[in-house]
């Protein structure tokens, strides 16, 4: 397999991963709706380049954590469906990563949008 074919296949596998996430994980839909809402707010309030960077970081971080969490869950389920202390710990750690990323994105959204939303209501 030449270099370009193998690189092309890597992209294909990555897109397959995104498809597994969007079709198989209900949480991913919630993240997507939250991301679209943040982008629409960003456009409406004409946020600065720096603010866009924080919003992008928050969105990407949540998706990366959800993807890794889903991968851990899938691997854990293949190893055993029976109770296993290590699988419990691994899955809980994956869930904790997603939770922290979601918390971070909420804090970022509040810091950026709350003052703008307040100003919006004071001017109408
Ligand atoms: N094989 C196992 N052994 C021990 N505990 C487990 C096992 N599988 C799941 N758990 C526990 O149940 C929790 C939920 O695991 P599960 O695989 O059902 O994730 P989920 O509910 O689909 O999570 P998410 O909502 O993030 O997709 C884990 O965090 C872990 O505490």
Automatic annotation (TrEMBL):
CDD domains documented for this protein: UDPK_IM_like
Regions crossing the membrane: 28-46, 52-72, 93-114
Keywords associated with the record: ATP-binding, Cell membrane, Kinase, Lipid biosynthesis, Lipid metabolism, Membrane, Nucleotide-binding, Phospholipid biosynthesis, Phospholipid metabolism, Transferase, Transmembrane, Transmembrane helix
Protein name: Diacylglycerol kinase family protein
Organism listed in the record: Carboxylicivirga linearis
InterPro entries in the record: DAGK (IPR000829), DAGK_sf (IPR036945), UDPK (IPR033717)
Localisation per UniProt entry: Cell membrane
Family listed: Belongs to the bacterial diacylglycerol kinase family.
